[in-house]
Specification:
Double Stranded RNA Binding Domain; two-stranded antiparallel sheet
């Protein structure tokens, strides 16, 4: 057993003690996340933290440094470049777009991904991408999400349970919904109700 002289913590090996002293006691050796002001004892932990963050999309026009939040960019420009007018840059379908932004005065902002075509905001990048593809590129959502293909007729479905229901009703002629007043039966409850 080895004991840290600074905090009294007991560690099993001298290696663990050295690691403890390096990562916990010596503040100057810590790795700092510039975006969220968190400290990490090991570089790999900082990298894991940064990799876990959402994609940076606020870009400083002066030095091209990226920031995950607008208020980080505002603070950076004020302290490093002393500029009053700021530009927000982000990638949209392969081309860079720029829009002026105002200082946030320290307010915490909700991170959004905004469509430059119509201004609609989305909480996630994949939602924005899907929106752009389906609305502005005139691609139907169903064609984007057709992952399950029927082997009999090649019809596609975006959900597996829809494919299964299609096979039962169309190809196996499974008609579990029967009318109480006549001999007709249907594959879907909605069809029975319409009847």
């Amino acid at each position: 057993m080895c004991q840290c002289l600074e905090c009294g913590k007991e560690l099993l090996t001298s290696y663990n003690l050295k690691r403890h002293v390096k990562t916990v006691q010596k503040q100057e050796n810590l790795y700092k996340c510039e975006y969220y002001h968190k400290h990490f004892g090991q570089k790999r932990n900082l990298k894991r933290h940064v990799d876990h963050l959402s994609i940076s999309f606020y870009l400083c026009e002066e030095c091209e440094k990226e920031f995950p939040r607008k208020d980080n960019l505002v603070r950076h420009v004020k302290t490093v470049h002393r500029k009053k007018k700021l530009l927000l840059s982000y990638d949209h379908a392969g081309s860079k777009k720029q829009v002026p932004i105002a200082p946030t005065h320290g307010k915490r902002l909700r991170k959004v991904f905004q469509c430059v075509e119509c201004g609609k905001e989305f909480p996630r990048k994949d939602s924005l991408v899907r929106h752009v593809k389906t609305v502005h590129r005139k691609e139907k959502l169903s064609t984007l999400l057709q992952r399950y293909k029927c082997k009999e007729c090649r019809q596609c479905f975006h959900r597996y349970d829809y494919l299964q229901r299609h096979i039962k009703v169309v190809h196996r002629r499974d008609r579990p919904f029967s009318c109480e007043h006549c001999d007709k039966s249907y594959g879907h409850m909605t069809d029975l109700r319409k009847h």
